Amino acid sequence: MDTDPLTVYELWDMAPLALPPRSRLFHLAPIGVGTPQVESLTSYAARLAEAHRVQPRHLVAREILPLLGRPRLEHIPFPSMLNILRNSTHAHNGLGTLARDLVRALETLTGRRDLHFLTLLPWAEVLSTQQLQRRTRAFCPACFEEWRQAGQAVYEPLLWTLVPIISCPRHQQRLRLTCSYPDCRYVAPWLGARSRPGYCARCDRWQGSANDVEGSTGDALTETELTTHAWVAEAVGELLAAAPSLPAPPRREQLLRTLVGWTRSRRTGSRQAWARQVGLTESTIRHWERGEIVPSLWLLLHVCYHLRTSPLRVLTGTVADLPPVDPEPPSALPFPLRPVRARTAFDCETMRQALEDILTSTEEPPPSLREVARRLGRAEEVLRRRLPELCHAISKRYLREQRAQGLRRRQQVCEEVRQATYHVHAQGQYPSAYRVAQLVSHPASLRGGVAKVAWQEALQELGWSRGKESVVPSV
Q1: For residues 131 and 165, what is the distance between their CA atoms, to the nearest angstrom?
Q2: Who has the most CB within 10 Å: 234, 284, 471, 472?
Q3: Structure pTM?
């Protein structure tokens, strides 16, 4: 009797595979880590929201806010909470607790471990918050257009968020601070409710342009300014690029020791003469020697520019090996003046007349006080403080119109539900919530509120027992 030979098959490993941990949100990679053009954390959050096809306000409210460890924000109404976050979005890219909490929340949601490099947290102990970050958005239209034409991701570098950076080092033009369109001119926060990199958060129009004509003709930089700001951008970009390669975060004590030894080794005359030569005050140097303050980024750039070194060498303690160098005279190496917030005189009578004209106008719907302040180019808080009666009248009229619109909208919804209920009844079917919801423009409205009450009242008028489809309506 012939028997077939045994067939030997390959041995299969049936052990379960070790899968990496899953993240709740996309494992989105940040752009430019380890380079001068590293992405900002607010830009990353906006791109993450766009990748999930949601607005940043929903991402913040539903995913990030519960992980921030700030329970008091969870009990604030949604619009008020957005206002609080919008006014502090510049701190999301900074070096404080808000940036640290946001990094921790986003790293928990995405599974990333490199998001702190999108902020100034690696330099938290050696940088001052004075003259450090812009409170509102700044961007280069030429960069946006170049990235889109090349098919690259559009984002906002961390470099743009810093006060000393007033121009794009690549395209040699000033950063824009408002929307590019004359009919908008919106001053946007770094992360707004509808922020998208490359688009205006208010009008949602593309902000890129190959040639920023208005910026180049209206406020052009001179050759000397271009040279100086190119050095500033290079020096700051060197700091941002070096963050991932730091063996340990720089310490405040090390910076002050380095700074004091560095200034003493280069002081050839009196303290006052040397301080005056590099644009410092004697009290500033005395504070450094006592360890009371650390220099701001702008002041550090100023001194480094005159002494021909870089802030990175000072902050990492490698500047002590350099030979003593006398500072160049300020006339030979002009450094840009420290930026100050532009202040214009408040013409009370002109503003009063403008607010009165708005109150007597027939514009429909009436504008809110925030919109009025934007049109007048004034802060809403300033208008409230200087002209409280008129501001209160504008807000009251706007609120009255909003309530009237809400009442009309609710009446329209109720009438639509009522007509849909009667339509289903005329077809000989029970007007259930499911059948009625298929005929109205907002099906979710039947889950509660005035729409549900209108449906229940229509059922009673038609003689249906609510929830009992088998019951025959009374005649």
Answers
A1: 11
A2: 284
A3: 0.71
